[in-house]
Fold:
Amino acid sequence: MTPDSRKIRLVLELRAGGVSDRRVLGAMERVPRELFVPEPFRDKAYDNVALPIGHHQTVSQPLVVGLMTQALEVGPRMKVLEIGTGSGYQAAVLAAMGANTYSMEIKPNLAREVKIRLKKLGYKVEVRQGDGYYGWIEHAPFDRIIITAAANHVPRPLLDQLKLGGKLILPLGNVRYSQNMTLIEKDSQGKMHTSQHGQVRFVPMVGVAQE
Ligand code: SAH
Structure:
């Protein structure tokens, strides 16, 4: 199979799995996932599977990235904060959709690698090394927040850094087994509305507040 036909197959799988937003599909078609995974896994980059990225972390399954990004309803020029940069793939998808993207990674070596990768590929993403639990106060408030590591509760500082009318999505539940993809919308009065979007499995969020 040629790289292009693999990409087409993946887009068909995303559509079959419920991703219909053309801006999400377009961004995922453009971002070269093979350049976000280690060399030995490049031929699997367009398979609908999570892949190891070193340091015991994984880049999420494309369908999960697609569904999460779609549920978040990211518009161009929105200010979006991601917690858990990892390989940088999700951040690149957000940037490819025209979002002003900020991303935090707790592991210093991953943060270092991903800064270089995103810069080299020309994605305008601000990456900061640190515990994303506390958010990024200097750039708050955000239109959208996406947490790409499993949490057993919603980090309060992140809710506080969400704009009125903003949305936050995270894998919420038992961090050792599975989580519910949970979308929280903060209405114009600051009241929170929660909805569930299916079972997922993410690596656990780590840091002081999780211990
Ligand atoms: N979004 C990533 C995959 C996320 S894997 C991608 O597209 O490749 C989860 C990532 O969250 C890991 O890199 C892990 O180190 C990071 N992480 C875990 N806890 C964190 C925290 N408290 N703050 C910031 N990053 C965290």
